[in-house]
Design a protein that fits this description.
single chain; 138 residues; alpha+beta; 40% helix; binds guanosine-5'-triphosphate; binds magnesium ion; magnesium; nucleotide metabolism; ATP-binding; nucleoside diphosphate kinase activity
């Protein structure tokens, strides 16, 4: 089984959509093996999205991610990385498929409700940024 890292973003926690998003995750056959609600620091957000630091939307992205609490999670399942990307849908909700988290819940390309790791390597890096080994119970 594979593990991926997920964030329920501030636009979703603000609208009380944590449970609805978790239901979508679980219906897709992914198991939530670690979860906590936290407020990101600016430094954490800048590190987490460091690959985007030259992009014009970087400042806006960091401001958004620290604006309200997020829920960080580890999801486990067969092909978890690719499967969760599918369950989330396209980055821009306008392009997201029916039934995906972003189609159902996202407000815009920026406020798009969910993050999921884009590779197994990044999943391991991202999980280690937020969870100690003994906080993940598979
Ligand atoms: P993540 O799972 O959050 O990494 O999304 P992604 O992999 O589908 O997209 P990407 O890594 O390219 O972008 C990271 C995040 O930056 C997106 O999820 C959006 O929240 C935000 N973002 C991307 N493009 C734009 C944009 O054009 N404008 C704004 N405001 N935010 C953007
Ligand atoms: Mg990404």
């Amino acid at each position: 089984l594979e593990r991926t890292f997920s964030i329920i973003k501030p636009d979703a926690t603000r609208r009380n959509l944590t449970g609805a998003i978790n239901a979508t995750i679980e219906k897709a056959g992914l198991r939530i093996v670690a979860q906590k609600r936290i407020l990101l620091t600016r430094a954490q957000a800048e590190t987490f999205y460091g690959v985007h630091k030259e992009r014009p939307f970087f400042g806006e992205l960091v401001d958004f991610m620290i604006s309200e609490p997020i829920v960080v999670q580890v999801l486990e399942g067969e092909d978890a990385v690719a499967k969760y990307r599918e369950v989330m849908g396209a980055t821009n909700p306008a392009n997201a498929a029916e039934g995906t988290i972003r189609k159902e819940f996202a407000l815009s390309v920026g406020e798009n409700s969910a993050h999921g790791s884009d590779s197994l390597e990044n999943a391991q890096i991202e999980i280690a940024q937020f969870f100690a080994g003994n906080e993940i119970v598979g």
